[in-house]
Every structure is written in C-alpha cells, then in structure tokens.
Structure prediction request, 264 residues.
Amino acid sequence: MNVFRQEIRQNRNSTIVWTAALIAIAALYISIFPSITGNTSISDVYQNFPEAFRKAFNITADTLTAFSGLYALALNLILLTGAVQAMNLGIGIVSKEARLKTADFLLTRPVSRGSILRQKLLTVVTLLVLTDLVFLATDWLLIKAIISDPFRFRTFIVSSLSLVFIQAFFAAFGFLLGSVLPRVKTVIAVTLPAVFGFYIIGLFDTVIGVDKVKFLTPFKFFDVNALTAGGGYETVTLVYLAALTAGAVITGFIVYQRKDIHTV
Prediction:
C-alpha cells in the first residue's frame, strides 16, 4: 500500500494554495518598493509609527528606504505563513485517520505503523521542499525583474532559508501533536493558537527589549534584519533547532506506535 502517493495526492491542492500565498506576500512587498524608494516623505511615515509597533516588527529607518530592510519586514509575514502551513500539514497528516474515522481501514492493511509514519513524514518533507523551491525561485525572479537595489543572491538564499528552518520546526511540532492528541477535530483550531502563541511571545520580547525568550520561540531563533543585511546564523541556534526538530519527530514516532487509535 503506497501511503506516500496517496498523501501527496490528497495534500497537493492545499500545498499549491499555500505556495501561492507565500509568493503573493513576497510579490506585494517587492512590487511596492520601487514606489517608495527615494520618496522623501517616507521618513515622515516612519516617524508616525508608534514606537511599540516599530519595535514589535523590527521596523527601522532602513526598512522603508533599503530593499534589504523591506525584505526583512516581508520575511516576518512569510515565516508566519510558512509556519502555519507546516504545522497544519504536520498535524493533519498524522491525525487524519482518527479524525475522519478511517483508521480501521489503514491500520488493518499489511503495513506496520512505523512504515505508515515514515511515508507520512516523507510526504510532509516532500511537499514543504517543493513549496520552498517554487517560492525561492519565483521570489528571486521577481527581485531581479523589479528591484534595482543591489541585493546579493547569497544574502537572498541565506535569509530565505529561515523559512525552511521555521517550517521544519513547526512541521515536527505538528507531527508530535498529531501523535500525542487523542483526536484532533479541527486541525486549524490547534495550529493557529500554537503558531500565533509562539509569535506573540516573540513580539512581547521584542517590545520590552529583553532577550530572555530567544530559545522559547522559533520566531526569535533568527534575526531577519541581520540576515537580509548580509549576516549569518549562529551555530548554537541551528544545533538547538535541529535537536528540537529531531526530538519532536522521534517522540511522535514512539507515541504513535504505542497509542490506542479510535476507529469509530
């Protein structure tokens, strides 16, 4: 029984929609930059933003005058959207049988739970990789076609990889929740509070100016302003993220293979 092929087919349309949403967000920010660059009134717009708002979204004077700053602003929304997609996929693909009451059909097939989970996990990885490849390619083409500011390809790739890392974490976290929770009635009802909860924690930390929750929310793992300005990633952060992601996946495997799954 080819679970992978079945899952790819069932999640194909939603993946296309999420990919289009990510591209639309990037296209919106990229397309407005030529109209604001060189505009002397932009500084007045920046000054009119409340200080708390500027801190929460890392808006600086360069955000509205240099493309690197504007792209960092776009990345904040792109990361949030990508996180929702990844966690939605992670939870949904594991909890689907219990939610739709079709577990008896799948689990009575001549295939182990471990094999089912591996194919489901491979589906998640495949769909997210395809999403990111299409997004990155389209995003870069839009930048080259519209933006005249110098923006190195290396800087673009390094900063945009934050989407890949964020999605890996939230897909794994969703995978874990889908395995742990007895029955998920509505996937989005679990995804949105979790993702926005992490995001709000990051905003709170940014506003008060105390870097005490950096390792409590993945949205603080990376400084997108530093990345779009040519910076890189901290090794300790990447190791920490990899450990959390791997731990969530391994724990999800263990729990799922031992749990009682309701079939009715």
User: Anything to note?
Assistant: The radius of gyration is 20 Å. The chain has a mean pLDDT of 84. The chain is about 75% helix and 0% strand.
